[in-house]
Amino acid sequence: MEALAGALRRRERNGVVWYDFPALTAAGAVIASVASRHGGVSEGSFASLNLSYAVGDEAGRVRENRHRLAEAVGFAEDGIVCAAQVHGHRVVYVDRQSAGAGYVGHETAIRDADGLITDQPGLTLWLGFADCVPVLAYDPRRRAVGIAHAGWRGTLAGIARELVVSLQTRLGCRVADLLVGVGPSIGPCCYAVGPDVIGAFQATWRDVDGLFAPGPGDTLHLDLWEANRRLLIGAGVPAENVLIARQCTACHVNEFFSHRAQHGRAGRIAAVIGMPEGG
Ligand SMILES: [Zn+2]
Fold first, then answer.
1. Could you read off the pLDDT of 65-105 as tens digits, one per residue?
2. From the CA of 252, how far away is ligand 1's center (Å)?
3. What CA–CA distance (Å, rounded) separates 243 from 70?
């Protein structure tokens, strides 16, 4: 396996492995992490750190895995806020009243949201992934954080742009202050897409040059990292503030869950961002 380096730093505690974005965490007291699949108690396709209740794993194991991640990374479990993701582009502001949403069971997660933002310390925004793109944003001046889940549908609909706009309009962030990490997700190396996806991007985006690369045979591969980079820069985030991990989950299926590489039988990693209380 090639080394995971660059925009990410690999961390390990008590067998739990996760990745931080040093460019975000160095800017202030913030947690900005993406879990690996290592260090949990789940088995089979969910081995071992499956963090989702919604994929058919035993709830008790998921609860234990979530506890292990929170303890290893170092954030309070009672401040976690999870969303019931729907591959849409809605970004929701959350405050202390939402603390604990979706944490011990999927049914209490924030409905119909693929993005969360907050300016409240003590909250940890949490989304689940298996190939889709985690986008983590931090404003060290305004002290605000946001996270988005961008698969091809969310990317097509511009959820990364919605995340930036929500931070501006709801919380008064300046785009020039935003630091944004794009986490491990399926890369252009592995993401073959059909004519439906290609046609949808051609119809919605004015310019698709460089978003699709030829794969084996007649296939075309979609570059979700580049698409999300364009959305962020188009929304005004300085190019040097966009940190792309460039780590493909399908290439590194021993390190992350991958919906594609595991043929739909995958657990979920999580990406989390938050400002610890008193940090
Ligand atoms: Zn790949």
1. 999 999 999 999 999 999 999 999 999 999 999 999 999 99
2. 7
3. 24
